[in-house]
Amino acid sequence: MPGRLEFEFEHENEADQVVKDMVITEDDTAEELDLKQIVLRIYNGKLDRRLYRKSFIFDRDLLEYRKNQAAEKRRPKDERDLLNKVKVFARMQTREDFDQFSMGMLNEHALRQRIKQLQEWRRNGITTLEDGAQYEVERSQRLSRRATTQRDSVHLLERLQKIVASRTIRDSASEAAAQKQNSRKPASIVDIESADGIELLSGPEKDLCSRLRLFPRPYLAAKEVLLAEYARVGCLKRRQACELVKIDSTKARWIYDFFVETGWIKPPVREDGDAAAVSIDGPMPVYLAALDTREQPVVKSEF
User: Fold this and answer.
1) Strand ranges inside the chain, DSSP E
2) What are phi and psi of 275, to 5 degrees?
C-alpha cells in the first residue's frame, strides 16, 4: 500500500501473530501480567526495527529500482564492484555521509588507476602527456585487432568443424549406400585408383580394397587399429578384429585373413601347438591364393 507506506510483506511479518489474540483482563495474575508485558516489549522492539528499515528504504530512494539500476549500468565495472563492497556501511551513516564516503572511495580509486597508468607510461619510456595519449590510442587499437583476430580464428575453427562434420556424414552416407547396394546385387570390383590415400597401399592391398568395395582411408584406419592391437597383445582373434574395426563384419573378417596370410599378424596358438586355421564362410578370393606370403611390405599408417 504505497499511500500508507506499507509493504505487502513487512520485516518480521509474523510478529503480529503473537499478540493478535492477547487480552489483558482484571483476572490476570501478576505473573501473567509480567509475561504479557515481556511479550509486548519484544513486539515493540520488532516494530521499531521494522520502522527503521522502512525509513531507510524511503530515505535512500531504494524503491526506485529501475532508476538506480540504470545509474549503476552507466558506471564502469570496477566502480560498480567498489560501490557494491561499500554498501554495507550505508546503515551506519546518514544519506549525505554515505554519499560523501562513496564519492571519496571513487575518487581514491580513480587516483590509483591514474597513478598505475602513469607508472606504466614511465616504464615504457613515455615522459609527456601527449605521448601517453598516443600510446593509449595505439594500445586500444592493438587490443581491438587482437580481439578481431581471435574472433576470426574462432569463426574459422567453427567453419572447419562444420566442413569436417559434413564430410564425415557424406562419407558415412556413401558407405551406407554402398553397403545397401552390395546387399541387393552381387559385389563388383570398384575402381579406387583415384581415391584419397591410394598411394599408401601396396598392390595386394589395392586388389583387396577393390574387391571388398572399401576405400583406402577406412582400410588404413582398420589396418592401424588391428596392427596396434596385435603389437600390444601379441596375438589377435578374428572375433576381436571384428569388434575393433568399425566396418562391416564380413569385410573385417576378410581383412583379418588377409593380414594372417601376409604374415603381418598371427592367430592364437592352439593347445596342440598349431596356429588356428584361417577359414571363413564363403569362397576364398583369388587374390588370397595368389599372395606371396614371404613378402613383408612396410606398414604405413599415414593419414
Assistant:
1) none
2) -70, 150
Helices 216-233 and 203-212, axial angle in degrees (round to 10): 110
Rounded to whole angstroms, the Cα distance separating 67 from 62 reads: 9
Q: Distance between CA atoms of 303 and 221, rounded to whole angstroms?
A: 8
Strands (E), 76-146: none
Q: Which residues contact residue 164 at a Cβ distance below 8 angstroms, ignoring those fewer than 6 apart?
A: none
Q: What is the pLDDT of residues 240-261, one digit of tens each?
A: 878 887 778 888 888 888 888 8
| pTM of the model as a whole | 0.39
Partnered with residue 275 across adjacent β-strands are 269
Compute CA distances 297 → 220, 233, 284, 289, whole Å. Answer: 14, 21, 22, 17
Write b or e for each residue in 101-140: b if 16 or more Cβ atoms lie within 10 A of its Cβ, otherwise e: ebeebbeebeeeeeeeeeeebeeeebeeeeebeebeeeee
**3-state per-residue secondary structure call for 157-172:** HHHHHHHHHHHHHHHH
pLDDT, tens digit, 9 for 90 and up, residues 70-99: 888 888 898 889 988 998 888 888 889 998
Q: Rounded CA gap, 196 and 210, in Å?
A: 14
Instruction: For residue 227, count CB atoms less than 10 angstroms from its CB and return exposed for 0-12, middle for 13-18, buried for 19 or more.
Output: middle
**Under 8 Å between Cβ of 183 and 203:** no
